[in-house]
Amino acid sequence: MQPIAQKAMAPDIIKKVNDAGVIAVLVIEEVKQAVPVAKALLAGGVSAIELTLRTPVAWDAAKAIKDAVPEITLGFGTVLTVEQVRNAAKLGADFAVAPGCNPRVIAAAQEHGLSFAPGVVTPSDIEMALEQGCRILKYFPAETSGGMKHLSNMVAPYNYLNLKFIPLGGVNVNNAADYLKSPLITAIGGSWIAKQDLIQGEQWDTITRNAEEISQLIKHIRDNK
After folding, report:
1. Residue 29 catalytic?
2. pLDDT at 6 (0 to 100)
3. Per the record, a Pfam family (predicted)?
């Protein structure tokens, strides 16, 4: 059987996410915080962001980042509806992810040309995603589901398909290496780099230091593979 073609994520976005190695998950409550946090992350070597759609300013914050910090690979998280897909594509997002695997949302992303990674945590989730042509998948919630041990065992029957995963949920600098050392992982994601309280407190230097720490870890692991 031939590998299932990737339809849900464009090759250039796959490369950008893989090159980044980490996606900073952000919850932004004020538009004025958007550009400073993006610049702080970039200064520390983190070039990919997942901006969650959990606040009313998320769309405006994303537009501000796209306009002022075009070097950032910008994605949306918690994308649950066809309308959100449409809005993300219209805004020019590089990608979007979801906590679950909704075929209607995946189909809408493909229709609008939006690179998309659905969330999976069971073999059934994986097979639903495969049916939609997805091979880059969000593993969520990663840590409470069993971490890399669970993922490795779950994916074993599908190894010939060369699936890649973005683990989120409980991933942090202390356990990042467990994921990054695995060939299954294209990038990790997490909110610890720029926690909501750090953004609210405008602690840009701390965010840059957190970004530098994980960027250095990624480089060390990749240099020693």
Report:
1. no
2. 67
3. Aldolase
CA atoms within 13 A on the CB side of 37: 32
Integer Cα distance of 207 and 33 in angstroms: 12
Q: Which of 189, 77, 81, 187 is nearest to 136 (CA)?
A: 187
Cis peptide before 183 (omega within 30 of 0): no
Is the whole model's pTM more than 0.90, yes or no? yes
Are 179 and 167 a contacting pair, CB within 8 Å?
yes
Q: What does the pLDDT look like over 170-199, one tens digit per residue? A: 999 999 999 999 999 999 999 999 999 999
Measuring CA to CA, which residue among 151, 205, 207 is closest to residue 179? 151
pLDDT tens by residue, 75-96: 999 999 999 999 999 999 999 9
Q: Which of 50, 143, 164, 195 is catalytic?
A: 50
Active site residue 111: no
| Residue 73, beta-bridge partner list | 48
